[in-house]
Amino acid sequence: MNIKRFTQIIEAYGADSHRWPESERQAALALLATSIEAQQLVQQASVLDNFLDTVAVTSPTLQLQQSIFDAVAQSPQPDDTWQELVDWIFGTTWQQHLLRPTLAFLLPLILGIFLGVQLTTVEETPLTQEAMWQTEMNLLAFDMESGW
Amino acid sequence: MESRTDEMLMKDIQAGNQQAFQYLVNQNLASLHGFAQRMLGSNSDAEDVVQETFLRVWNKAHTWKAGKAKLSTWLHRITHNLCVDWQRKPKVQTVTLDQDVAENTEHSTDSLQREETAQLVERALQRLPERQRSAIVLCYYQGMSNRDAAQVLNVSVAALESLLARGRRSLKTLLSEQGLS
Asked: What are the tens digits of pLDDT across the range B142-166?
């Protein structure tokens, strides 16, 4: 934290350290404790803060609260099945947006590799080799009988 | 009702649970009403905007996505956009905040002086460009972090700080013109 950045913070957020950016608050307070220039900046900013603090707002009435509840009671939520389907497929958080399509892409790939490996294994079983050998013997026997 | 996470609460509201919606209103009404009042300078306009905000929340609940923005940030963004739309609409009748307060408050001499100052500050706030006023109201009065306020206004944190600094400088100038400094 230097005095230039401290000045920017005070000019933007005012004199109250609770409003300063959280990530820079400790460093700014440390500078404030040792710098007279920083203390003067805070004092100047507190004048405007005091003026801003004079502006009060009225509290919401119970009638307002009730009229909101009444308006909602008369307004059924729109049916949004399409949106629900999209949310179910793609998720609702950015992690899900990334993970779900990736899984959807990888799943058929993994299934294809698995099936490919299984079929290759089936061709190499002794029973299949035996059947092929038998076929070859039958063909040879046919050759000899026909005299070709 | 026990405290709920944003996600749990919005899931219930998305499912049409009116009790969950009432909880949301109770938790956020005062804050959003104050925000709208400071943005518009009028209690009656603020009431209309806040009512419209909550109705939109109910009807568009499915558009809120967990992880994209905090619920309070999303609510402030809806209110902010409605306030901006409201200010651009042609006005039939304008009731200002200071008139509302003046009608509802009894004054001692000290409070009268404070009230006059408040009215001058309020008027100066209303004279600020809309983006600068929004930045000040969100950060100063609503107590939002710079990131959340920047998200409401759809700007970077650096741009927000620039809006805040320019807003405060303009306010100082306007107030010193009114004899406050």
From this structure: 999 999 999 999 999 999 999 999 9
DSSP A20-59: S-HHHHHHHHHHHHH-HHHHHHHHHHHHHHHHHHT---PP
> What does the DSSP assignment read for B33-77?
HHHHHHHHS-HHHHHHHHHHHHHHHHHTGGG--TTTS-HHHHHHH
Q: Please answer whether residues A49 and B164 qualify as being in contact, where contact means their C-beta atoms are separated by less than 8 angstroms.
A: no
Report the pLDDT value the prediction gives residue A35, as an integer from 0 to 100: 93
The rounded distance, in Å, linking the Cα atoms of A123 and B150 is 64
Q: At what angle do helices A22-34 and A36-53 cross, to 10 degrees?
A: 120
Please judge whether B21 and A72 are an interchain contact, meaning their C-beta atoms are less than 8 angstroms apart.
Answer: yes
Please name the residues between 17 and 76 in chain B that touch chain A, using a CB distance below 8 Å. 18, 21-22, 25-26, 29-30, 33-34, 37-38, 43, 47, 50-51, 54-55, 58-59, 61-62, 65-68
How is residue B138 written in tokens? 């969100």
Q: Classify A57 in phi/psi space as left (phi over 0), alpha (psi -120 to 50) or beta.
A: beta
Contact A48 B140 (CB under 8 A): no
Q: What is the C-alpha to C-alpha distance for residues B19 and A73, in angstroms, rounded to an integer?
A: 11
Q: How far apart are CA A54 and CA B114, in angstroms?
A: 7
Contact predicate B41/B87, CB 8 Å = no
pLDDT tens-digit map of B22-34: 999 999 999 999 9
